Amino acid sequence: LQSHISWNLECVVDPYGFERSKDFDYESYEELMSEYLVVLTRRSIKWSKLLKGKRKVQKNVKLKRYVRKGIPNEHRALIWMAASGAQDQLERNPGYYQSLLRAEHDPKLVETICTDLNRTFPDNVQFRKTSNPCLQKALYNVLLATGYHNPVVGYCQGMNFIAGYLLIITKDEEKSFWLMEALLGRILPDYYSPVMLGLKTDQETMMDHNVMWTLVVSRWFICLYIDILPVETVLRIWDCLFYEGSKILFRVALTLIHHNQALIQQAQSLPDVCQNFKQITHGPFVDECHTFMQKIFTEPGSLSMATLTKLRATIRSRIITEELGPTDPEN
User: Fold this and answer.
1) Mean pLDDT (10-residue bins), the chain, 331 residues
2) Which pTM does this prediction carry?
C-alpha cells in the first residue's frame, strides 16, 4: 500500500484492502477526499521535514502536536513503535519473537486461534488465502507468539482484529507482536485478561462521567473502535492511543456521546439504545476524521491522565472488593 495521496477514488477496494460496499457513496467520498488530501499533503511535507530520514524519534511537545494532527501512513509504523515503547522492547529482546514461534505449541491455543482466522476481516483482500502475500499466516504467528508471551491472557476474541490492523499498517510480524505487547501490557493492562478487570474499571469510570451506556461503550473499548468507526478515523485514534495512552478511548467515547446527546436521550428501550449508538458512529461527523480528531480534544474538556489514573485506582479497588471480597490480612 502506498500513501494516501495515491488513492484511486474509483477503486472497489480501499487503500488498506477493505472492499467497499455496493452502496458506497463515491460522490461524497470524492468530495471528502478532495479536502482531506490537501491536509494529508501538507502534513506529509511537515513530517518529512521533522523526521529528515531518522529512524529514531523522541517524545516531545512538538511531536505530540504532530501526532494529534495525524501521522502519514508511511510513517505510522515508525511513530507507533517509538511512542509506545515497542521499538525499545524489540531492540532489548533480539530473537525473542522467533523463539516464541519455535516453542512447543499448545494445541488448545492453536485451535482457538485457527478458529478465528477465517473470521478476521473477510471483507479485506489481504487476508484471503488467494492473496499473495496472504496476511493470515502472519496473523496466526503474531497471535500465537502473543499467547505464549502472555499466558494469563492467551488469546481472546477481538485480539485477531487488533493484530490484523497492526499487520496492515506495519507489514511486519515482529513489529506487530511488540505493538500487541505494548497494548496488552502497558497501554490497556487487564483489558483482555480472563476477568477483564481493566475493561470493567474503565466501564465504571465512564459511568462516573455520567455515561450510563456502558454495555455499548465497552464494545467500543475492547475492539479499539475497529468496525465501529471508519478505518481512517480508527487509525487517527490509534495514532494518539499509542502516543498518549488509553485516555484517548475516553475522549472519543465522550465526544460521540456529547455530540449526539439529543438522539441518545430519545431511546426508550435497549434496542433503541443500540440502534441510536450505531447511528452515531456513522455519517459525516465521524467520516471527516481530521475535524473529528480536533473535536475529541475540545468537546470533552479537560481529561488528564493523572485524573484518570486516580479515578481508576478508586474504582478498581471497589471492583476487586466486590468481586473477590475484602482481603484477609492474616492470609
Assistant:
1) 44 89 87 90 94 87 96 95 96 97 94 94 92 93 97 92 97 98 92 80 68 72 94 97 93 90 78 83 93 92 76 80 60 43
2) 0.88
Q: What is the DSSP secondary-structure string of 251-313?
A: HHHHHHHHHTHHHHTT--SHHHHHHHHHHTTSSHHHHSHHHHHHHHTTTT----HHHHHHHHH
Grid coordinates standing for 198? 481493566
Bridge partners, residue 124, by sequence: 18
Give residue 4's pLDDT.
46
Per-residue pLDDT, 3 = 45
Q: Residue 26 CB: number of other CB atoms within 10 A?
A: 12
What number of CA atoms fall less than 13 Å from residue 271's CA on the CB side? 0
- Inter-CA distances, 330 with 196, 199, 310, 323, 325, Å: 27, 30, 28, 19, 14
Cβ of 135: how many Cβ atoms within 10 Å?
24
Res 75: pLDDT? 95
* Alpha carbon 314 to chain centroid, angstroms: 26
Kindly state the cell numbers that stand for 324: 473477590
How confident is the model at residue 64, as a pLDDT? Answer: 96
177 strand-pairing partners: none
Output b/e per residue, 295-311; b: 16+ Cβ within 10 A. Answer: bbeeebeeeeeeebeeb
Q: Would you give the DSSP letter of residue 83?
A: H
Query: Is the separation of the CB atoms in 159 and 149 below 8 Å?
Result: no
Grid coordinates given for 172: 511486519
